[in-house]
């Protein structure tokens, strides 16, 4: 037994998809998804908070973790632009 094996926390590679472009982010299973969201927004050149993120039709929150959200290695998270407001016509 090595001390190294006791300290290993499983990691997953998560794919973030935005309009056909993808990035892969490697995180520990207990890391808040906020880190994945920030990496995706930076990579796609968007301001923080611009996207909403979904996995399997369920919206993900920044405080969620891969383990708590049922995300596994290689899963894809979809990024969508947050739609604000509506039409000003009456």
From TrEMBL:
It comes from the Eukaryota. Residues 12-86 form the Ubiquitin-like domain. SUPFAM superfamilies: Ubiquitin-like. Pfam families: Rad60-SLD. Coiled coil: none annotated. InterPro entries: Rad60/SUMO-like_dom, Ubiquitin-like_dom, Ubiquitin-like_domsf. This is Unplaced genomic scaffold PLICRscaffold_16, whole genome shotgun sequence.
């Amino acid at each position: 037994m090595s001390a190294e094996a006791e300290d290993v926390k499983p990691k997953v590679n998560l794919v973030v998809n935005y309009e056909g472009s993808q990035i892969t982010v490697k995180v520990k299973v207990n890391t808040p998804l906020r880190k994945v969201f920030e990496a995706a927004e930076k990579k796609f050149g968007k301001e923080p908070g611009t996207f909403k993120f979904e996995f399997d039709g369920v919206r993900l929150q920044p405080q969620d973790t891969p383990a708590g959200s049922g995300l596994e290695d290689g899963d894809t998270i979809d990024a969508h632009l947050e739609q604000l407001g509506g039409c000003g016509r009456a």
